[in-house]
Amino acid sequence: MQIAAPAEAASPGIARVALDVPQDRLFDYLATGLVEDDIGRRVEVPFGRRRQIGVLIELAAASALPAESLKPLGAVDRRTPPLPAELLALARFAADYYQHPLGAVLASLLPPALRRAAAPRTQAVEAYALTEAGELGIGELPARAVARIALARRLRAGPLARTALSEGERRCLREWLARGWVEAVASAPAPFPGATQAESPTLTEEQAAVLAELEAAPPGYSATLLHGVTGSGKTELYLRRVASVLAQGGQALVLVPEIHLTPQLGERFAARFPDRRLVALHSGLNDGERRAAWLQALQGRADVLLGTRLAVFAPLPRLGLIVVDEEHDSAYKQMEGMRYSARDVAVWRAKARGVPVLLGSATPALESWRNAEAGRYRLLSLARRANAKAELPAVRLIDSRADRPKQGLTSGLLTALGACLQRGEQSLVFINRRGYAPTLLCNGCGHVFPCPRCTAHLVLHRERGNYRLVCHHCGLTARPPEACPECGGLDLRAAGHGTQRVEETIAEHFPEARILRIDRDTAGRKGAFAAMRERVEAREVDILVGTQIVAKGHDFPHLTLVGVLGADHALISPDFRASERLFAQLMQVAGRAGRAERAGEVLIQTAYPRHPLYQSLLRHDYAGFAAATLKERRGADAPPFVSQALLRAEAGAEEAAMGFLLAAREAGLRLDMGVTLFDPVPALMARVANRYRAQLLAQCGARARLQDFLKAWLAGVRELPGKGVRWSVDVDPVDY
Ligand code: ADP
Ligand code: ZN
Fold this sequence. Notes:
Helix content: 25-40%
Strand order of the largest sheet: 10-11-9-12-13-8-14
Number of strands: 30
Bound molecules: adenosine-5'-diphosphate, zinc ion
Structural class: alpha/beta
Radius of gyration: 28 Å
Mean pLDDT: 90
Low-confidence stretches: none
Strand content: 15-25%
């Protein structure tokens, strides 16, 4: 990147710049030669003793500050197009709504490589990307330049890595580089290599009806909630909508919760639109890749941007459609910094841009379901699987009070696993706890081993025969003691079950079975999950043991049985959203069974088979579950019927955090704006790594009133003394 000095021309004016600093205001600098069209450009400015990168937000004739205190603006980046006005407006909206400084919002939406001052000038050429000039130039290549045309065609599909080029091709590209047809980029994002072109299937009647409805919407903003059971063909409809946006010259933004866990979606897009530029944007990219992807979006060269939550803030000058797949997924919520919901930002952005937004899920967030009921979103449904032969799996409950589990598994489930193995089909045992056992327990005195730094038990792990105690919150690890530190007893036992122990038990029962465990410990590394998926698809695995990682959007065609362990925990959780999450998770994991021609079966071990949640699940009845749960929420004055914001504080001592929140509450009550302020309480995880955490909930029936209150309140909260206290605000919190 090259940063040019501002031209010396017109009379000096004031440049008002947003900077990534905790103060929520713009900073004034002396500048000459800037014009309105420069708004949105990145600028370098002196700040304190450092130089910082900021974004030019306004030009003014004069500053309220005395002229002698103003410093001159540094370099202006004219190589990168300015951030479009639409994006600046979106950032301003997010800053306002989520109570976060504008400069910090802008910094977080820039790729890391563009946040830093004076990017390294001499970057090694790792890849070549086509420029606009190149786009025109290669169109004029003579027909006999066969090799060059082939190279150009490959470039059109996205940047090419140097390592993927022959010597001749490199020579040609050096020539094109000199001509300005291509530019050197740090690396080539090749999001979904090897996708082969795929034709679109004939839509089912149900799909065709929904597509007709989607197409019948008048142009401009519309929000649609597409509720469709797993395998009902929602993705096929996204592809159709994206195709028509591309045909009209638009860009499509497709958001997914987790890109590494859903590579099949990317492959399907790549296969459907082989001539289009599909760009992936997510935090798993390195700085160079992320910068390249972001710039392709900004320059309008990406046709489809497929990304995780951060991509909702990507610049897209020709944006024509936003799709939010699995819109209920909690991965759309950013949990630190600006705590935004990418789903909600997507809806606002679509509205501001006047484009349709399509939210899809088999188990919509209750917020979205409620919005549909209230007429704010249009609800369209797909009730049947697209593949007529792939029926929804039969769900059965195993009463674990009658069929007592041994080593965590009921005889009913073991029998089913054995039969599945006999048939040569695959099964999945789902348990949402990694490790060997949730705790180590002294059988003499009942002592369990707490993490010395957190409000949590240490989890027992077992690797190659060795046991370790691990804290899942702060990472502390310890060797299990020989004797109980409380009573000296030697009878220490693993209590409960995690994936490792279930794997061990299943191996004992079915020594001939090929077992694969998929959890964060085995699939966490980059590429590990993809390799595992390939093994499953190649039928090199009989029984999968896995956490929710397996549940998300994967097609395992030979999987016909799913067993679920440990689901009851969520029913007794103090978090009122736990049952909503459990239902979504179980529907999703059930959706893995019987995706192809063979019918699937889901067996859930539970001590509460009559629980309404399980009863709805038996009937695949999301609507029934949603209605019952919304009724409870309404009765309890809980979201989505009220709006909430959570003020969190953490400090080295509990009194400091609580004292700060008590003072904040006093300040809030004095405002008397009709917002309920609950008493400050310790967080569910009250201590993590020796930091005490407490929180204060603000709640109001009217979102706008809560917003007004937060503005006034936080201005006061910022002035509160709070030595050693770190605090943050979370608007629309999803975890407490
Ligand atoms: P969802 O996104 O709702 O889970 P998908 O779009 O992935 O559903 O469709 C599920 C499966 O059915 C996929 O394997 C897909 O290729 C197939 N499919 C989707 N629509 C059709 C159709 N109209 N005809 C045949 N197969 C289809
Ligand atoms: Zn800990």
